[in-house]
Design a protein that fits this description.
Oligomer: single chain
CATH class of the largest domain: Alpha Beta
Order of helices and strands: HHHEHEEEEH
Shape: rod-shaped
Number of domains: 2
CATH topology of the largest domain: TATA-Binding Protein
Structural class: alpha+beta
Largest sheet: 5 strands, antiparallel
Radius of gyration: 31 Å
Length: about 160
Amino acid sequence: MPDNQAGIGASFLSMPVRPRLMWLLYHTRLAFQRIRMFLRAAVMGAGVAVAAMMAGCATGTSEKEIRARPPMRMFTPAKMADVAKCLRNNLGDEATVVNLPAQNQTEIRIGQPKGSGEFAYAYLISLTARPDGTAVELRKTDTWFPQMTPQELETETKACARG
């Protein structure tokens, strides 16, 4: 085959060694730069996705907003202390129990603390002691809370309210 028809491979191989090495070095570095840019974009994309998920999780409802929501009401003949203990045990670390003795009431707050010192509510369970048992009010927000779905919380609350 004549030299002018050998294609790029033959002309590349017929080049002196130093320019050939420089060409290889340049194109290898260019390929690594493209790979590095792709990886950066992938990591940034993953970071944006995680940030969006965390933002959905971290945004919550203020105390005023959650109290304005209509509650799901239940009544149980069980004592308030027994219902609170059951919920605390079943809900685990997601639940923060707050006793309000002046009002003979216990609240179970589910959500996350904000950086500003406030609490971002996902759910609020209010237990009020009555002479014949306990009044239970369950308020839910539209906040995405991955640790517990509204259905799971409702099921746990009903199970504890049965006594």
